[in-house]
Amino acid sequence: VLHDMGASELFVGKGGVCASCGTKLSGGKAVATTPASPPSRSRPRKAEIDLWSASPPDNKEIRDAWEGAAAAVDSDDLEKALELLSKAIKLGCKEDDGAVMGDEDAEKCAAEVEAAVLCAEDQARLYANRASVYLGTDKRMQAANDGRVATEMCHEWWRGHWMKGQALLLGLEGKKPSSFNAGKAEAAGAALQAALRSGSLPTSKRVEVEAQAEEAKGLLVALNPACAQM
To answer: What does pTM read for this prediction?
Structure first.
């Protein structure tokens, strides 16, 4: 069953219920209920830098750039932090080709990550660090992309998923209901749920990530054109 108001397959109803909002459906049509109100939007956090996962990198240039980026963030020089993180990424990480990785690319990607100077988690940490700084400068598209790349470097590590989810949420600020925007809300929710499932998620961050996952869920309803017109 589909809502009959132009929604995409994203909003397929199973058992007579809309998959995005839980609305009861009748004869393929949505039964009118109270319209959903958009939840309050998250705001960018202060940029944060995570250092390496275990021992410092052997490569001094990478180590110095990483530490320099942390110092630059502490002094609120985010442009300098971006410059240094980009340098560390270029020296130590698999190069991002800008393409979304498909299943057929996973083996090749894993080989390229393994061949890089840094271990997979440290590559993910650098990309997630740069995503955090991009969020601090309100560059949401770049932050979402670096979050995505971080998840490809090390899918098990939580922070790449979190950065991607936050960036997508912030990119929806002020947006009107549409299937495209609802799809972005769904992607944000999926990323935040992946962060919540990760065994590496710190206990201190769980409540915050849970709140953002709920925000994404509310946005999926608010931005679904089928739900918004009821």
So the answer is: 0.77
Distance CA 165, CA 131 (A): 11
Q: pLDDT 10s digit of each residue in the chain, 230 long?
A: 233 323 333 444 445 455 545 554 444 444 333 334 444 445 556 889 988 887 888 889 999 999 999 999 999 999 999 999 999 999 998 776 555 545 456 666 666 666 678 888 999 999 999 999 999 999 999 999 999 999 999 999 999 999 999 999 999 988 999 999 999 999 999 999 999 999 999 999 999 999 999 999 999 999 988 775 55
Using CA atoms, how far residue 160 sits from 44, 50, 200, in Å, is 15, 12, 11
Can you give the chain as a three-state secondary structure string? CECCCCCCHHHEEECCEECCCCCEEECCEECCCCCCCCCCCCCCCCCCCCCCCCCCCCCHHHHHHHHHHHHHHHCCCHHHHHHHHHHHHHHHCCCCCCCCCCHHHHHHHHHHHHHCCCCHHHHHHHHHHHHHHHHHCCCHHHHHHHHHHHHHHCCCCHHHHHHHHHHHHHHCCCCCCCHHHHHHHHHHHHHHHHHHHCCCCCHHHHHHHHHHHHHHHHHHHHHCHHHHCC
d(CA 126, CA 176): 34
